[in-house]
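Attaching the record inline, Q. Sequence:
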Amino acid sequence: MGHVVRSLRVILELEAQQDCEVYIAGRWDDGADDPLWRRHPLHLQRFTGQLAVPHVDVEWLIDRVRAPLVVFDLLLESHRDAEWLTHLRERNVKIATLHEHVFPWADVALAVSPTIFEQPIEATVPASRISLQGAPYLLVDAAYGEPPQIARQPNTVAVVMGGADPANLRLDIVNRLCRDPRFADWRIAVVQGPAMSAPDWAADDRIDLLEQPGSLVHLFQEAAIAITNGGTACYEAIAAGCMVYATPQNDFEDEVIALLITGRLCQLWPPIRWEDGRLPPDDRGGIDGRGVARVAQAIRGLL
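Structure, as predicted:
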């Protein structure tokens, strides 16, 4: 779900300029009658069009919309998706990608890798490709580049595992926090993402369940500690100046978190080690909140 949030931010930025029409095409499993992106709080009913496509047929999509540019925010696999890209190029459609992986095999016009670390570009990448990588292009809320609007609360811990938590890591995190005497008088703010199952921990007055908040800015600005997965939420917690602990949901996030730990931007959960102290408040990893605007400008430049 993290990719849905950041993609919607780019869409909102493009739509706000009112110089292009934006269509959304969703792909989801059979039987799902309401895609998750349509239920997300960031989704607004202002877009020019919304295409519900259970299995994206690129030829049908392009013929229907006649768009000069298609932006993919999904993992592209060379053995499955090369045919898609070929169909697009045959119709003179430009292609952009918003994904952590660079896809060196894909002939795309723009590749945005929204990770905090710059990745080496392989020699096989076409010379015509525009590649945007590193902290300046992180797709976080623009408010992280502005002065905080809320005071830090020294006894609030935020538990944010993105939009989905398939392994139910929140249960272990919440149970550990509730058993830890150091958090006896703390507020434990837990975000309930749109693709998460109902919470199944024991009732506790300290737990504050937040149902699909449209923005995490205020939560991360007030929390002293943030426990997240290795996705966009982790970057936002860093940008807000929290003491960040991260736990991976998959192999890719394992690599991201390892790099963040090496850069002293977060620590591995568990445990919480008070003796590690806080990072300097101005050490935000170079995240300035303007990544969405930069990426949207680059996309408009392809039109």
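The CA atoms of residues 10 and 292 lie 6 Å apart. The chain is about 30% helix and 20% strand.

More tomorrow.
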